[in-house]
Design a protein that fits this description.
By secondary structure, the chain is mostly helical. The protein has one domain (about 1-60, about 95-115, about 125-409). It contains 16 helices and two strands. The protein has a two-stranded antiparallel sheet with strand order 1-2. Strand 1 and strand 2 (about 120-125) form a beta hairpin. The N and C termini lie far apart (about 75 Å). One of its GO terms (molecular function) is 3'-phosphoadenosine 5'-phosphosulfate transmembrane transporter activity. It is found in: Membrane. It is a multi-pass membrane protein. One of its GO terms (cellular component) is Golgi membrane. It holds the Pfam family UAA.
């Protein structure tokens, strides 16, 4: 009975009930405000404008960019090749340090025991949702501070629409932490590297996207590599305490589903409302902090976490570094994409995933069989093939368009 109460299914159910106490009243309130046409009868008070911003969007009280729709505040204006090269090195180092440190701490917190001040008491921390909250709170504060001191494009999106991708973002992060109780970190990283497949499926469902033939071929190659890795890693399950279990597989599938929805929904918001990346970061993390804090308060997890910090001070410092890495990592993501484009960013993060697996195997002594190693190589070769093919297809389309324009002229 105790093992069932401690299971991830029960924790997930309780967590979803907590989120429902925010979503259901919020949904009913939005429906009511729309039914009475609140926007038409609202006054000019700050509260009225805040409500309109949350429910309807198109607020005109936020600071406008004098060149709205023009150059993003994150883009570099320097044309110097040397400066651009140094900028790229800065982005690579920032992303690698932030997310490699974050990954190492993630595995440490969820799988290792902490030693108390008296060196006799030991304990392990298992509250995945608290770690999600820790990741989001500093990111929200940093994004909010940036918005206060910088000019941004006019914000037109209803704020409540951030709650959808915020929820899926929370759930994907929770799945990452929870999965480490059942699968090894290399397995989790490889599953994340293989999320191209669910992203394609979700793109079909959410946006009706179509894909090139090479993308389907790459998806098949990645699936083959993942299969080889999983078969190879099961041979070592007797040697390690973290074998791939059915629960781990289910949670990883949940992670990929939620994460693929997050990226597709954010893409829809960017396309529809043209907000800046920092506005997106602030909006998503705002709802993430709201949802997780309400759920944690209802469960009394804050008191449990703080008591654990008092007993094991090292855990407190791990949480602080984890939060800093998560927040700075998000800023580096937006800056890198704005400055160098998504292709360069994908290459950097793919290398990061390879390094994460290597570091985890070295630091935490994860054995990797020959078959599993071949599977890892197979997956990352397929990913780099996808990057190359995607770049080539875009170049060919540009040349074809330029040739057609020249003929018409």
């Amino acid at each position: 009975m105790d093992s069932f109460l401690d299971s991830w299914v029960v924790h997930l159910f309780i967590m979803l009930l907590g989120y429902a106490t925010v979503f259901i009243p919020g949904y009913l309130l939005i429906r009511y405000l729309k039914s009475i046409k609140y926007e038409e009868n609202a006054g000019n008070s700050i509260i009225s404008r805040l409500i309109i911003s949350c429910v309807y969007g198109s607020d005109d009280w936020q600071l406008l960019d004098s060149n709205a729709g023009g150059t993003s505040p994150l883009k570099t204006t320097s044309s110097s090749s040397l400066r651009r090269a140094l900028n790229l090195v800065f982005c690579v180092i920032g992303l690698q340090v932030s997310y490699l440190t974050w990954g190492i701490l993630q595995e440490k917190i969820m799988t290792k025991e902490y030693i108390g001040l008296d060196l006799h008491e030991t304990g392990s921390f298992k509250e995945s949702q608290f770690l999600v909250f820790v990741n989001r709170i500093l990111a929200f504060l940093l994004a909010g501070a940036y918005l206060l001191v910088s000019k941004q494009p006019r914000h037109t999106a209803p704020l409540y629409k951030y709650s959808y991708c915020s929820f899926s973002n929370i759930m994907s992060s929770w799945c990452q932490y929870e999965a480490l109780k059942y699968v090894s970190f290399p397995t989790q990283v490889l599953a994340k590297a293989s999320k191209i497949i669910p992203v394609m499926l979700m793109g079909k469902l959410v946006s009706g996207k179509s894909y090139e033939y090479y993308e389907y071929a790459v998806a098949l190659l990645i699936s083959t590599g993942m299969t080889l890795f999983l078969f190879g890693s099961t041979t070592d399950s007797g040697k390690t305490g973290t074998s791939t279990t059915l629960s781990g597989v289910i949670i990883l599938v949940g992670y990929m589903a939620f994460d693929s929805f997050t990226s597709n929904w954010q893409g829809e918001l960017f396309t529809t409302y043209k907000m800046s990346s920092v506005q997106m970061m602030c909006g998503v993390n705002l709802f993430s902090c709201l949802l997780t804090s309400v759920s944690l308060l209802q469960q009394g997890t804050f008191s449990v976490a703080f008591a654990f910090m008092v007993k094991f001070p090292v855990f407190l410092w791990d949480c602080i570094v984890l939060s800093v890495c998560s927040a700075t990592g998000q800023l580096f993501i937006y800056y890198t994409i704005a400055t160098f484009g998504p292709v360069v960013f994908i290459i950097i993060m793919t290398v990061r995933q390879l390094l994460a697996i290597l570091l985890s195997c070295i630091i935490y002594s994860h054995p990797v069989s020959l078959l599993a190693g071949f599977g890892i190589t197979f997956v990352f070769m397929a990913i780099f093939l996808r990057i190359y093919c995607s770049h080539r297809v875009k170049q060919l389309k540009k040349r074809r368009t330029a040739a057609q324009d020249a003929i018409r002229a």
